[in-house]
Specification:
With 339 residues, this protein is an alpha+beta fold. The chain has nine helices and 17 strands. The protein has two domains: 223 residues, Zn peptidases (Aminopeptidase, 3-Layer(aba) Sandwich); 88 residues, Peptidase M42, domain 2 (Elongation Factor Tu (Ef-tu), domain 3). The strands form three sheets. It has an eight-stranded mixed beta sheet with strand order 1-2-12-3-13-16-14-15, with helices on both faces. A hairpin with a 5-residue loop joins strand 1 and strand 2.
């Protein structure tokens, strides 16, 4: 899990994926025939082979913030990038990127600074970042409207008896880790596999749209993360319960043919799986599935607690079982999967 920790501690807010892309490219290039970056910033790693042409996709980007306004005292008002629960932001440490120099700051609000009790949940417009610098000092660092703000990294840790990994950007550095491990394990397989690390999933699935169009795979699988509901008496998505096969989410119904192939592989090899049936959330599977004339697509997701917050929690056994499931399934992939 050392590589996963590196991925979690790297930065890559939607639209600013350069650092994480460089790390992923460095790690995966030894396992494939070629890697390249397309016009929108997706990293594509290709293991050449015979039919079928397979696309495995995981988004690189993470949620974050962007500078919206700076007042004379140096208060940095921000806008969110991706879906973030505002209640989880207060008191969090962030790094404001500058053209010349970065600034570390803390998210706060006036009521906390003055000692007044907070009587209701604040709005995003009530929050600001305090770096201890005024507007002029921030300007000298090259900090201005439009600069990215990322959550502080290097806080990756293990919980429980060591089986739970905690950190920022589990959504979706877990998926990136799974793809790199699969590339390592499937080097000698004969199939034509594209490992695609997409950009801007958290805001638009823009990267998945363009990469699916250019690759035109026979079918595709998205590797992502999903919420847990294991606080309920009858949970369907629990930490430790195995990878989740998407039946439906807010925007997509998983391809039945691909899902059955994955289910059969799991049953044959005694791999625990779960089913994701949700009214919320979406993945790159939507835009891939409607690309060109339609691409049969599903998503396999690793459960994450506190998803879309500054720090989440995932069970390493679920990650390992996701890799195992996909590795075994991809040894005998269907040549065609329609319905």
């Amino acid at each position: 899990m050392e590589l996963l920790q590196k991925l979690l501690n790297s930065y890559g807010v939607s639209g600013d994926e350069g650092e994480i892309r460089d790390l992923v490219q460095k790690e995966i290039k030894k396992y494939v025939d070629e890697t390249y970056i397309d016009k929108v910033g997706n990293l594509i790693a290709h293991k050449k082979g015979t039919a079928p042409r397979i696309m495995l996709a995981a988004h690189m980007d993470e949620i974050g913030l962007i500078v919206k306004r700076i007042n004379q005292k140096g208060k940095i008002v921000f806008s969110t990038i991706g879906g973030i629960d505002i209640s989880t932001l207060i008191g969090q440490r962030v790094v404001v990127q500058g053209d010349k120099k970065e600034a570390v700051g803390v998210i706060t609000l006036d009521a906390l600074s003055s000692g007044d009790p907070v009587k209701e949940l604040p709005k995003i417009t009530d929050l600001f970042i305090d770096t201890g610098l005024d507007k002029e000092q921030l300007a000298k660092s090259g900090i201005k409207i439009g600069n990215y703000i990322r959550f502080y990294g290097n806080d990756c840790c293990f919980a429980g008896n060591g089986e739970f990994i905690c950190g920022k950007a589990l959504d979706n550095r877990v998926g990136c880790y799974v793809l790199i491990e699969l590339a390592k394990l499937l080097q000698k397989e004969k199939h034509d596999i594209y490992y695609v690390f997409t950009v801007e999933e958290e805001v638009s699935s823009y990267g998945a749209t363009t990469s699916a169009y250019s690759i035109s795979p026979v079918w595709a699988i998205v590797i992502d993360t999903t919420t847990t509901d294991d606080v309920y008496s009858t949970p369907t998505r629990s930490l430790g319960g195995g990878p989740c096969i998407t039946i439906k989410d807010a925007t997509t119904i998983g391809n039945k043919c691909v899902n059955k192939w994955l289910e059969d592989t799991a049953k044959k090899n005694n791999i625990p799986i779960q089913y994701d049936v949700s009214e919320y959330g979406a993945t790159d599977a939507l835009t891939i599935s409607v690309s060109r004339g339609g691409i049969p697509t599903t998503a396999v997701s690793v459960p994450v607690r506190n998803i879309h917050t500054v720090i989440g929690m995932s069970d390493t056994n679920d990650i390992k079982n996701t890799i195992k499931l996909l590795q075994l399934a991809l040894r005998k992939p269907p040549k065609v999967c329609l319905v």
